[in-house]
Amino acid sequence: MVTLILVLGDQLSDGLSALRAADKAHDVVVMAEVADEAGYVPHHPKKIAFLFAAMRKFAARLRADGWTVDYTTLPDGVTSITGALLAAAEKHGADRVIATEPGEHRLIAALRDCPVTVDLRPDDRFIASHKDFDGWATGRKALRMEYFYRDMRRKTGLMMDGDQPAGGQWNYDHDNRKPAPGSVDYSGPMRFTPDDTVQEVLTLVGQRFGNNFGSLDDFWFATDQGQARQHLAHWVTHGLPLFGDFQDAMLDDNRFLYHGIVGLYINAGLLDPLEVCRAVEAAWQAGDAPINAAEGFIRQIIGWREYVRGIYFREGPDYVTRNGLKHTRDLPGVYWGGPSFMRCMKKAVEQTQEEAYAHHIQRLMVTGNFALLAGVDPAQVHEWYLAVYADAYEWVEAPNVIGMSQFADGGIIASKPYVSSGNYIHKMSDHCGACAYKVAVKTGKDACPFNLLYWHFLDRHRTLFKGNPRMGNMYGTWDRMDEGKRATIIAEGDAILARLDAGDPV
Ligand code: FAD
Ligand code: DLZ
């Protein structure tokens, strides 16, 4: 009997466990562009175009390598992954499917319920298996990423001197976090001119998803492994050396600074995470990149990326519904491109709309910070992030949003909420100079909304956070403030929230 080998849109890797388990001579690879996957959130059109183009090119590569591939395009009208499997099972007389475990509980459940038997293989493109992560997490009072990361360094041997970290320290973050530089000496990610496959997909996506939030114009993503590797080599040479120094900075006229722009390629399977880390380690060993850049970057991949996946699978399907702070406000219109007077919000959303990309600090300390301070329903925040970024899949997006950014998981990931006043954004960016508000002004019509909502948030969540040892200073400052000033801040914060509720721009 023929076995079907399922390859999903974010499983475009030569060494995929499902492909390794297959018999190329007899088995049939199934790949499908389907309405359910393209529509379970209103994905950014560039994200859909990237995945469809990369899927088509990966299928062509598999065929050239001797595989039989049953590929369904969106116009073929198959609506779901299980529908594609059932149709292929009938067509090829198959009674069994081998699949690599998908990255979302939703799809795992659908495969488990599929009338054709599906044999799920572990996704071993990750360094830590579910068992490894659970072994590390079980019995710990707090699941802090730093300790998990050290285990991953030991396991991979990356930047290790025997059993000790290279350079003597595990973490060089104190050399990172520099404020925005005056100018950026890196031209940004390598841009690829759309070829025929990409052009065809852009037309399809424009027709079918043109009304989704996000622009399809000026599509430049790599869409196959070769291009993604070219981009990686380019970034390692030109971007990596200053990645660490400026990884938290934001600039009004530069969207990428020294960031890798590799998340979308790694998450879709075009780049292997260890391959990326080894390239970075080699640059550091050759003296072409400083230790703070190399260690900082490797920590993001083998630390944060692996850690958030571990949390997602450990916490289970209800994780995305958690709402520890009981926030209920609707997501403000600015997130969908509506008007705003806040320069940093406008810039972060504008580039998200145009590029399907924003870097970590824009996601955490601008759009995430604002949603948290404004008390937005975390499920709506989660859906927005899942939709708008080209690198977003639930396993990685949800822990970052529900956990790290919105503190909706009750503190599993973050030991305190990531909230800040306008001062942080002013320190790390040049946005405030061009803003309609004045960051130094604390009350009144010119006051930066981050300043007002920061204290408003702390005040309304006092019962929960007052005893948090990392937040004592903040409450100390608030409590020492003149009572009249506190009342003004709360009243003006209320007014901002009322404007958001009325759908008026802030
Ligand atoms: P770089 O800044 O160059 O970092 C290198 C790589 O490290 C990234 O490509 C990514 O693979 C990894 N990485 C860094 N931080 C994290 C992290 N916190 N979690 C997981 N991997 C990390 N990342 C996603 O891949 N998909 C998402 O949907 C996603 N949603 C996020 C939502 C919020 C609210 C926040 C705060 C972070 C989110 N991140 C997400 C993490 C991070 O912002 C992106 O990985 C990064 O911005 C991607 O850009 P880059 O490739 O230029 O990364
Ligand atoms: C994100 C996405 C989109 C937009 N479309 C498809 C698709 O048509 N076919 C497919 O196989 N995968 C797609 N994906 C990726 C899946 O949604 C992804 O595999 C799951 O979210 C699990 O991570």
From TrEMBL:
Pfam families: DPRP (PF04244). Keywords: Lyase. InterPro entries: Crypto/Photolyase_FAD-like_sf, PhrB-like, Rossmann-like_a/b/a_fold, UV-DNA_repair_photolyase. Gene3D superfamilies: 1.25.40.80, Deoxyribodipyrimidine photolyase-related, DNA Cyclobutane Dipyrimidine Photolyase, subunit A, domain 3, HUPs. GO terms for molecular function: lyase activity. PANTHER family: SLR1343 PROTEIN. This is Deoxyribodipyrimidine photolyase-related protein. It comes from Loktanella fryxellensis.
